[in-house]
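Continuing the batch. This is chain 6 of the set; chains 1 through 5 are on the previous pages. Same settings as before, nothing changed between runs. Recording input and output for traceability.
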Amino acid sequence: MKSFPTIAAFATTLLSGALGLAAEPAYLSPTALAAAADGRILYVACATAGQVAVFDTTTRRITRTIPVPDSPVGLALAPDGKRLYVTCAAPESTVCVVDTSKAEVVAKIPAGHTTVAAVLSPDSKTLFVCNRFNNEVAFIELASLKTVLRVKVPREPVAAAITPDGKFLFVANHLHAGRSDVDVVAASVSVIAVADGKVCREIALPNGSTLVREVRVSPDGRHAVVAHQLSRFHLPTTQLERGWVNTSAASLMDVAGLKLINTVLLDNIDAGAANPWAVAWSADGKTIAITHAGTHELSVIDFPALLSKLSKFAAPDAAQKVDYTAASRTAADVPNDLSFLVGLRQRIKLGQSDRGPRAVAFAGTRAWQANYFTDTLTVIDLAAPRTTPESLPLGSRKEVTSVRRGELLFNDASICFQGWQSCSSCHSHDARVDGLNWDNLSDGIGNPKNSKSLLLAHSTPPSMWLGVRSNAYVSVRAGIRNSMFTVQPPEVAGALDDYIKSLQPIPSPHLVKGKLSAGAQRGRALFYSGPVGCASCHQGSLYTDQKFHDVGTVGKFDQATNRFDTPTLVEIWRSGPYLHDGRAATVRELFTAFNPGDQHGNTSRLTPEQLHDLVEFVLSL
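Output for chain 6:
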């Protein structure tokens, strides 16, 4: 029985900007930018076109294109501008070395699973890349074009930034790595001491921090800022007003102390700024730019003013006069203060032709943004008296298919009341997970459930852990009403259906050249054996019988009579934490710590070696 994908089978799938989305090569999907030192050239990674575009900022047109293998999603330009390093994401990724004078790939470096970021050391001798699904950062020695070190980080590194002295590499972990049924659930920023090649500090972000996107270090090397979502997962989802469910945030870190200074909200009191994504500093370090991919905006923050305001909370003084006009009285108030940035930032809306800004770069006083869904660039001259966005097409306008429109709508907070969130705010941009438990109203209040991946949702009814929606079609329409708090035309739900149905699983990082390892093959035999019994519920090519079972996991917030839907095991390796309440951080814990009475497979009598093999097989699906 062939129930897992091979790398070759997904060669076309991996040309998409979000791995696991059916390829539509007509679109460019700009997703990363790198600006030349003089600002005249902008390199644009076109994720679904398999190319890097060379854009002349003077003539406002593409002058050349550079074909690359797979999906280009990360760029690093050498200080002298002679070499461009391109991370091309795939299960077996490639880092391309481009000679910019020839606009040609002159070397290809094998990389890990879904390599999505590239950072050049100050001496240009080492390239650091994030192998997202290997949960590691690789050090590539450019003299030999070989990976010389791999450093493990908690979960899904998606961005990195190095200090100007080359001592520390800050790494943004997209999701938290633990269980989700505890009081504090938050992703972190890993700090790697480059000389030692080890993580020297995990900087925990505030409780509820998830979907971390991009981290950048200030030009003077004194601060770092990271964009992420700040979710209020401990509250029932009864309303959206004032950031009740999701807020958008930027966390500021002190480099010298390797610690968090504070977290500020990017929303306004009556207007969410959903899905913060890309971050850039101006060359003088006075301005931070952050894109909002969900509300299609750019936040431009006065950094000295922000730092000054935050410093007032750094050392509490009992004798200090209280400012009763301020919403925040203490440092702890700041991450909940929707008015904190008033007077400190501009919030600039992009035009209708610019949707999904996922990259930003400064060239002089101009901020350039790459708009994923409309194949455009936006340029804003921040020195001009009036900061009016200008939209520049990267190519001819393409017909928008239903799947493409559905992907945009999935990531579009404009279909939500006040723009507080999009579908991707709880399922990430590629319709998987955010790693949190949510107390949705579909099955009552007071019983939070773990967010499920939407992969194969339409093929594995019913929907939700308790099956309160008969299928994914019903669930999509209920989600618009109950999570977006709006009413939308029928074609919106139809396009969302088409997008979610188009999703394909991507090969597991536990596969060896696209095939089961020897241990996983032994684990497969155990999985299908009668004594262990996993296949009795996880049946067929989708590994689910689509029925409800009691496997001994009823928790303190559940009804004693609850039975839970059997989830598909396809792509389970990236959908943790596990069980309906996220109590299991790992698949191994499913078979050990949370398998009372062997109700979740007869695993208690397995030897440690057998248990390892069984876990390896499940993680290979």
